[in-house]
Amino acid sequence: MTQRPAGERPGDPGPDPPRRPPPDAKRPSRRAAAWNLALKGPGEATQEPEAEKD
Questions:
Q1: Which of 5, 24, 25 has the alpha carbon at shortest distance from 15?
Q2: 48: exposed, middle or buried (C-beta count within 10 Å: 0-12, 13-18, 19+)?
Q3: What is the largest CA-CA distance in the chain?
Q4: What is the pTM of this model?
Q5: Which of 8, 17, 24, 25 has the largest count of CB atoms under 10 Å?
């Protein structure tokens, strides 16, 4: 068997447990939308007013 980290229990799936989406994932706030737009960049942004002005 492979060695496990000291803090990991035998029943854990692994060092990276499955991530649960935050409660706000279903209703993103304007601040979250701004962050997503900034993280994705202008090329992948889904809603960008300036891009529609072409």
A1: 5
A2: middle
A3: 59
A4: 0.23
A5: 8
36 vs 44: CA distance, rounded Å: 10
Cα separation, 34 vs 44, in Å, equals 13
- pLDDT-based confidence at residue 45 (cuts at 50, 70, 90): very low
- Quick check: 32 pLDDT over 70? yes
Task: Report how far residue 12's alpha carbon sits from residue 33's, in angstroms, rounded to the nearest whole number.
Answer: 33
Per the CB < 8 A criterion, the answer to whether 32 and 21 are in contact is no
Judged by DSSP in three states, 12 sits in coil
Q: Sign of torsion, CA 42 46 47 52?
A: positive
Cα separation of 31 and 41, whole Å?
A: 15
